[in-house]
Amino acid sequence: MGATKLLKFIERDQAYPAKRTADERAQDFLEISRPYILAKAEEQAGRCSQCGVPFCQVHCPLQNNIPDWLKLTAEGRLEEAYEVSSATNAMPEICGRICPQDRLCEGNCVIEEGFGSVTIGSVEKFITDTAWENGWVKPLKPVADRSGQSVAIIGAGPAGLTAAEALRVKGYDVHVYDRHDRAGGLLTYGIPGFKLEKPVVMRRVERLAAGGVHFHLNFAVGRDASLAELRERHDAVLIATGVYKARQVEVPGADGPTTMAALDYLIAANKTGFGDVLPDAGQFDAAGKHVVVIGGGDTAMDCVRTAIRQGAASVKCLYRRDRENMPGSAREVANAEEEGVDFVWLAAPAEITATGVVAQGMRLGQPGPDGRRAPEPDADNRFTLPADLVIKALGFDAEDLPTLFGAPDLPVTRWGTCRVDHKTMMTGLDGVFAAGDIVRGASLVVWAVRDGRDVAAQMHQYLRARASTAAMVAA
Questions:
Q1: What is the domain range of residue 442?
Q2: Per-residue CA distances from 218 to 18, 154, 223 (Å)
């Protein structure tokens, strides 16, 4: 019976969930897409070709069993679809919202050429949202009692939370330390609500807390305890801090009174969304201001779209390459343009003044080692953009963790990321592991989830060996 519901890509057009109008969504921080109804989710899942080599799965960092849960969705077997989806992914509804599917699963769908890919991300989101609504997302319950061993996880972002869940299920006493006042990392404070509404993140955190994961918030390693002290308290430590150090704009005026780092701006906006009262809220409010955002990645898109919602007088995105060479999601660029953002392509900041950004026109030269054409100054092309607020969104590097954690013996690479054995995921310090962006550099949430899953398995092996050794010594 199920087969008759599949392979419908020839007769059914691709259809994403309807987006709210640009005027409507620019007034709030709610997600921009309306959810699928059941019939539409079944219809779109039924477009899957069930191909022999599922390239969607091959190109998913988590190796999600996408064809199987699409088939189950097409057949109306949503609870089973959720079980398959969640078997490999600790937060499928979050990945369904924020993964760049156009570059991963959907971009490698075999029917994409000619018929339009299956709307994998939207179906994934629908499945798990439905699971939450129907009580199919079960409480976290350890399958064994290993509470005699405890684990410290530094960082409550996607890598840390994924590892916390996997290790708690194994029965370990899990403690998560985070310097913010809410768990979630960039899911909570770095990604705006119009891409990821915060209750979606908080219910994941609450499930972990209800399952026995201990959260120590407003806790900064190096201030409240050194790395050495955490190693004394716990049998293993995971560093999953992410990378938070903003890359700088090396031009005159880059640290002037009208400039700020993208993450400072986004954290303030998200805190305001939670209802927090900030003493310097006006500094981070774009209302009535002419805003220029420097950068071309997804963080820059988050900033320009946030400024629109705050009521900016104008919002411009300054990027040194052209649209085709932009690192951010093409969908996000389109959403931003619909909402009124003006993109200034082939332009880089030359100076930031109290009233604007002096921009240097650029042109694309020969491809560099990475295959991308390198931007070069167009000497005769300079112009000024008026700006009351300039947001620097050029990406993130690792903080100086050895100094920050009071751990000069913590090995790091020349980029400042944690140096690990890529088989065991352990650093040069016994029992100290690292995963996520603090190892691979600024990357995608889905890779952080993958790393959190993988490092939990490695830590489990380490802890079992440690417990076995201790038992033999005791005997």
A1: 146-243+398-474
A2: 39, 12, 10
